[in-house]
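go over my protein:
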Amino acid sequence: MSARQDDSVIRVTGLRTQFGRQVIHDGLDFEVRRGEVMGIVGGSGTGKSVLLRTIIGLITPAAGRIEVLGHDMAALSDSERLAVQRRWGVLFQDGALFSSLTVGQNIAVPMKEHLKLPPHLSADLAALKIHMVGLPPEACAKYPSELSGGMRKRAGLARALSLDPEILFLDEPTAGLDPIGAANFDQLILDLRNAMGLTVVMVTHDLDSLHTICDRISVLVDKRVKVGTMAGLMEDPHPWIQDYFRGPRGRAALGDAAADHVGV
């Protein structure tokens, strides 16, 4: 196995996804390296969340190969696939918390399903995850409806971390947060990446997040993907990429000094 293969935790080759006659991705190649924060951006309808959901197995592709942590996902048995899925966590945009369960009970769901832990140990570990994402201890006993939007995001993140994953998938994690809340959430993701050795794949529209925490960015255009650093992508001549990264919001996210550096 080559060094490049060793470094890759996700490798998508020749992906084709479609719904009826509508083709979303066609011949898409995508790779994520161990330990990096990879951002995924694209215009409306380019299939950002579709790509994420296809990688984690919620959508079946029409063609292509998906490898996660060295495993061809299509070639695995049900038990083998479950073992790989235990090695990642997912935070969906709305948090996807069970409204009838407390936050602590929500966090314990994956533990009970995959680890068969006794209730007292699950409760202790849930409290630990609550602390890791910066929520107060009393949040454990609250229901999702009793939390603010930002706190629900963190509770959903705590559940995504419940099995100590190697990969963390985030779908629009800062959507709906105010700028301060979004910046704090970005810093939390960086801190968790560094503390836990996570690889992070993040679908986002937030240019500040892309600039602040992403090592590389994948841009979905023309049913495929272009990958690079923000500075590198800003030199790409594709019209959508130019509009996205060099528009007014891109300038604001980059800041005047950085913008001057890349010739904006």
